[in-house]
Design goal:
268 residues; alpha/beta
Length: 268
C-alpha cells in the first residue's frame, strides 16, 4: 500500500512497476467500490505488467477532500497521481464512473493516454433526476437504503446465488464508503456529459460490458462505442456491472490482448 498526496488529497494506491514491458495499466473504480475490485484481474495478469490501482477521493482509504466533487476534479486527482508516480503513455481502464474519469483525462491530457478501456460505462450515465433522487434518499436514509438494488445491478443472478459470502463482502465495501465521498461522486455523475469527447478519441479503445449489467446495459455501452472512431466492443458473459469481480479471467485475457496491440502500434 502507498499513500500519495495530490491535488489537495491523500490517495491510497497500489503500484507495480516493471522496467520493460507493455504500457502501464491504470485502473479506475466504480462508485461505492475501492481498488480491491481489480485484485483478481491483476493476479491473473501476473508480474510482467506495470499497474496502478487507486481509491478515488472519498472512497476506500483515500481522503474525502473539502472541495466540491466533479468528474473534472476526479480526473485532476488521477492526473496528479500519474505525474507523481511518473506513469505516462498509459492504458486507462475505467469502470462506470471510472469510464467518465478516463474520458475526461483524454479530454484534458491526451498526451498521457496510449489507450482506453471503457468498462460498463457511458459518456452520460442515467439522468439528472435519477441521480438527484438517489442523492436525496441517501441523505435521508444512508447508503444502506440502496444496498440491495445496487448489488442486484453489480452482480449477475448466478453470482448472487452461488457466491453469497462474496456478495456480502461487497455489500460491506459499498455501505462503508464515506457518505460525503459517495454523495459527491453521485453529484459528479449527475452533472457529467462527455458525449462530445467520443468523436475526438484517436487512441485504441475497447468497450466492455457484462451481459447482465443493470446499471449501464450492453445497448448503452454499444451506443457509446459506435461513436468512438475505430473502437471495438466485447460482451462479458455471466457478469453484471462489475465483470472484473465475476469474470477476472475473461477481463485479464481481453486486457492482455488489447494492451499488446496498443504496444505494437506504439512501436510503429
Amino acid at each position: 500500500m502507498e499513500f500519495i498526496e495530490t491535488n489537495g488529497v491523500v490517495l491510497h494506491c497500489a503500484i507495480q512497476r516493471v522496467e520493460k514491458g507493455p504500457p502501464p495499466l491504470v485502473f479506475i473504480n466504480s462508485l461505492g467500490s475501492d481498488f480491491r475490485i481489480w485484485t483478481g484481474v491483476c493476479a491473473r495478469l501476473g508480474d510482467g505488467w506495470s499497474t496502478l490501482r487507486y481509491d478515488k477521493r472519498g472512497h476506500g482509504l483515500s481522503e474525502e477532500g473539502t472541495d466540491a466533487y466533479s468528474i473534472g476534479r476526479h480526473a485532476d486527482d488521477l492526473i496528479g497521481l500519474l505525474t507523481k508516480t511518473g506513469f505516462d503513455g498509459v492504458v486507462l481502464c475505467g469502470l462506470s464512473v471510472g469510464g467518465l474519469i478516463a474520458l475526461e483525462i483524454w479530454r484534458k491530457r491526451p498526451d498521457l493516454v496510449a489507450g482506453l478501456v471503457l468498462c460498463d460505462t457511458a459518456a452520460k450515465i442515467g439522468t439528472a433526476q435519477m441521480w438527484q433522487d438517489r442523492i436525496d434518499l441517501i441523505r435521508k436514509d444512508g447508503i444502506a437504503a440502496l444496498a440491495e438494488p445496487v448489488l442486484e445491478r453489480w452482480f449477475s443472478s448466478g453470482f448472487r446465488s452461488c457466491c453469497q459470502e462474496q456478495v456480502s463482502g461487497y455489500r460491506s465495501m459499498l455501505v462503508r464508503t464515506a457518505l460525503d465521498g459517495y454523495l459527491g461522486t453521485c453529484e459528479a455523475i449527475r452533472d457529467a456529459d462527455l458525449t462530445e469527447v467520443l468523436q475526438s478519441i484517436t487512441v485504441p479503445t475497447l468497450c466492455l460490458c457484462g451481459d447482465e449489467d443493470g446499471s449501464t446495459p450492453a445497448e448503452v455501452v454499444m451506443d457509446m462505442q459506435e461513436k468512438i472512431p475505430g473502437s471495438s466492443f466485447e460482451m462479458i458473459e455471466y457478469a453484471g456491472h462489475l465483470p472484473c469481480v465475476e469474470q477476472p479471467d475473461a477481463i485479464a485475457q481481453l486486457l492482455a490482448q488489447f494492451v499488446a496491440k496498443v504496444h505494437v502500434q506504439g512501436q510503429r
